[in-house]
From TrEMBL, chains A, B:
<keyword id="KW-0808">Transferase</keyword>
<dbReference type="InterPro" id="IPR036249">
    <property type="entry name" value="Thioredoxin-like_sf"/>
</dbReference>
<protein>
    <submittedName>
        <fullName>Glutathione S-transferase</fullName>
    </submittedName>
</protein>
<dbReference type="InterPro" id="IPR050213">
    <property type="entry name" value="GST_superfamily"/>
</dbReference>
<feature type="domain" description="GST C-terminal">
    <location>
        <begin position="87"/>
        <end position="233"/>
    </location>
</feature>
<dbReference type="InterPro" id="IPR036282">
    <property type="entry name" value="Glutathione-S-Trfase_C_sf"/>
</dbReference>
<dbReference type="GO" id="GO:0004364">
    <property type="term" value="F:glutathione transferase activity"/>
</dbReference>
<dbReference type="InterPro" id="IPR010987">
    <property type="entry name" value="Glutathione-S-Trfase_C-like"/>
</dbReference>
<dbReference type="GO" id="GO:0006749">
    <property type="term" value="P:glutathione metabolic process"/>
</dbReference>
<dbReference type="InterPro" id="IPR004046">
    <property type="entry name" value="GST_C"/>
</dbReference>
<dbReference type="Pfam" id="PF14497">
    <property type="entry name" value="GST_C_3"/>
</dbReference>
Length: 241, 241
């Protein structure tokens, strides 16, 4: 089956979690808005197509089915491409972890948009500094500490059991995004994220992922996306956490 | 099977979405922290029990399985209790809608905690007014308009197809919470939420839900929960949206 992915052009955003799964699986897919422009997304949001109504991209077309919400798309794709163990218990745990990744991604976004998504960053810079400080000192250590413990409970190398899964791909993306946005903070957290960093390295070396990351299909991080590097929102260079 | 629900005492919070499903289904469950106190939650967060590691409550024990993340718990429970249609496509759509409910619930929370969950509301009142204004004028109409259209695409009375589901229960809880927190704003949105309000009324009249809402098991909304009524965060009485 040839999938159709719909996501805003020009950013990795939430679509990237889906792209990584499709690429790792070697799945056949079109990245529709990158071919046709963002306007290709709009008829679906207006409800002009039958089936599930998406609130926002990313959404995926698989034959006649339309599926939205990042974690939900991944839960749909994973069993079809060997990206999650077959047991129901494992799939439920994978979904739990992926929803927790969605939560921290939303919080990472809100560091630069703590007041309104309809306003520019420049209109909420003062509040962004406060929210980012709380994210760095409270939330990043809490979430990354949690995922580190999740790895510890497994075989130390995988989120789910002893097998590669879409959750590992998403943890790679989470770590990459946080490294881009908050390099100094991540430096301070190095000793507390050894398993996560090893996992990220291993994911980046998977042949399909390495090929993808080196290709023009991988959009660079930038200041229109979810993970943005604004130096004033990161730790000062010489401050350790 | 007797389920064990773990959630912080004293608030409805995210646990309430799970309680409504358990109550509607007439399921046998213990609300453990309400019997034993919040300390009953902590060993699970510390990882002292085998199986899935929860990041936060609510989580559910079902035999030897532990399941966290609200939408994930509901997706686990629903097929076991006739709270979602049996087709995989319907269950995927239900999960998509439930994750979108999780998103708006998180945004409702952030109206009173736009900077940090570790600080009191009083420490972020100025920013809360700004975030709440954006939530009322942009996000509430967008999310509620979306769910209204979801109902329109079905039979007008149910989120998923022509059948009652856990998504309907969660939409009732969302509407109840927003009515509590933002009564004036919700008044201004009355004409744009006719299907959602009818659905809420029908859910409240379901025998098991009516009995639950009238029981001491239903904790009243309060200013420790997710949906809080701070008049300064709502529209002015005489302003219509």
């Amino acid at each position: 089956m040839r999938y159709e992915l719909y996501y805003w052009t020009g950013i990795q955003g939430r679509g990237e979690f889906v792209r990584l799964a499709l690429e790792d699986a070697g799945a056949d897919y079109r990245d529709v808005a990158r071919e046709q422009g963002d306007q290709a997304i709009m008829p679906f949001l207006r409800g002009e197509h039958p089936g599930a109504l998406p609130f926002a991209p990313p959404f995926l077309r698989a034959g006649r089915q339309l599926i939205a919400q990042t974690a939900n798309i991944l839960a749909f794709l994973a069993p079809r491409h060997g990206l999650v163990p077959t047991s129901a218990t494992s799939q439920t745990y994978a979904m739990q972890l992926q929803q927790t990744i969605s939560d921290v991604v939303a919080e990472a976004h809100d560091t630069h948009h703590p007041i309104s998504v309809e306003q520019y960053y420049d209109q909420q810079r003062v509040e962004a500094r406060k929210r980012a400080a709380a994210f760095r000192s409270e939330r990043m250590p809490k979430y990354l500490g949690y995922f580190e413990r999740v790895l510890e409970r497994g075989d130390g190398r995988h989120a789910i059991g002893r097998r590669h899964s879409y959750v590992d791909l998403s943890l790679f993306q989470l770590m990459s995004g946080l490294e881009y946005a908050f390099p100094n903070t991540m430096k301070g957290l190095r000793r507390r994220t050894t398993r996560l960093r090893s996992l990220s390295d291993r994911v980046a070396e998977r042949p399909n992922i390495a090929a993808y990351l080196a290709s023009p299909r991988r959009i660079p991080f930038n200041e229109d996306g979810i993970f943005r590097h604004y130096p004033e929102l990161d730790e000062n260079q010489n401050t350790s956490v």
